[in-house]
TrEMBL record, chains A, C:
Organism placement in taxonomy: unclassified sequences, metagenomes, ecological metagenomes
SUPFAM superfamilies assigned: Molybdopterin synthase subunit MoaE
Gene Ontology biological process terms from the UniProt entry: Mo-molybdopterin cofactor biosynthetic process
PANTHER family per UniProt: MOLYBDOPTERIN SYNTHASE RELATED
Pfam families: MoaE
InterPro entries per the UniProt record, alphabetical: MoaE_sf, Mopterin_biosynth_MoaE
The name this protein goes by in its record: Uncharacterized protein
TrEMBL record, chains B, D:
Identification of the protein by name: Molybdopterin synthase sulfur carrier subunit
One example of a Gene Ontology biological process annotation: Mo-molybdopterin cofactor biosynthetic process
Keyword Nucleotide-binding listed: yes
Statement: the UniProt record of this protein carries the keyword Nucleotide-binding: yes
GO cellular component, as recorded: molybdopterin adenylyltransferase complex
Coiled coil: none
Alphabetized GO MF terms: nucleotide binding
């Protein structure tokens, strides 16, 4: 189980590959579900050229650990990897990675889906977008639809 | 008595303070009033005491860390 | 949108990376959800040393195309990649990959979850496991729990 | 008239035939009886006509492909 806050751009697929190789998951898991959220170059119909992601480090750490713990209590998971980017972010950069490994498919799929929703609603991160007309704090998360 | 008060994101910019220490407060709401010189509270401001979500009415104690921030937008 | 039936072992992460680079998805998508099903070295409390995956090629192709079409009608998806392995399979080999790209998170997450369930219930693949006491056809899919 | 009949997986092994052509059948059930020499039908056998799921009572026509197989277990 690993949680990372990344200051620099990261490759989510390589992070998954590395995590899988380092762990002792081999041959035990039958299911891997992942979610990656990345920066689009538009939001609410406005072009976004860059973004800054601020966070509350100590509380972020506590909440991501709590969410991971809750997921492990609720589903039968073999491993969880969570990575969240902070700092200056460019379009197409990955922002968040959630990967869940389990023996059977529903645990990893449902935990992955639950973790991204819970993270978005609870973890103290804030996005400020740079648009043509200046910098704007994103005021609230969308419902994901 | 010493209470650390933090502001994040748009609230940090509006208030103009990231981090301050106040010498006394009974509640998070009182900490807000002292740290912001009674600035008006945005309707959607969130409160955390010692890294856990709390309320403006929640009690604070010596050594506590009280944080105020807008709705979270990570992920 | 791509569907592949693979006769040989494949690397699901590399397949995703390659697909993403070849497509014109860049900067448009904000969400990527993936599911990978892989072979465990045990099933129903018995050690499984190898497996053969048989399929009905023409019907498999038709059903995977139908499922992809249905997912695109139901959710606002930018791209879908489906890969399913057939033939001789060894423990830890990936069997199925489903990857969905969308602007917002729920479309990719919900489509990915729906696609693996629909594939498991409809697509004509069959597993035969080699255990210590011989070869056994898997008689039905689990409910994934 | 020519109808192609296919068997897959455990059913292919039980029946001992992967693929055969019969000269006449009105329904998938009749195709089963002719192709298997009236072998008993397993309770859970599935039927496809021209690559779409169907029933034993479904009509078949000249040129159709009729397939019989056990519950699918892919993914």
């Amino acid at each position: 189980m690993s949680i990372y806050i990344e200051q620099q751009a990261f490759d989510p697929w390589q992070a998954i590959i590395d995590h899988q190789q380092q762990s002792d998951l081999n041959k035990q898991f039958g299911a891997t579900a992942t979610f990656i959220g990345s920066m689009r170059d538009f939001n609410e119909d406005a072009d976004v050229s860059q973004m800054v992601l601020e966070h509350y480090p100590a509380m972020t750490e506590r909440y991501l650990n709590q969410l991971e713990q809750q997921a492990r209590e609720r589903w039968d998971l073999l491993d969880i990897l969570i990575i969240h980017r902070v700092g200056d972010i460019k379009p197409a950069d990955p922002i968040v990675l959630i990967a869940c490994w389990s023996a059977h498919r529903r645990a990893s799929l449902d935990a992955c889906s639950w973790l991204i929703e819970a993270l978005k609603h609870q973890a103290p991160f804030w996005k400020k977008e740079t648009r043509q007309d200046g910098e704007h704090w994103v005021e609230s998360n969308t419902d994901g639809l | 008595m010493s209470i650390q008060v933090k502001f994040f994101a748009s609230l940090r910019e509006t208030i103009g303070v990231a981090d301050t220490t106040i010498s006394h407060a009974d509640s998070a709401g009182q900490a807000w009033d002292i740290a912001t010189n009674k600035a008006e509270r945005p309707v959607n401001v969130l409160v955390a005491i010692n890294l856990e979500y709390a309320h403006f009415t929640s009690a604070v104690q010596d050594g506590d860390e009280v944080a105020f921030f807008p709705p979270v937008t990570g992920g």
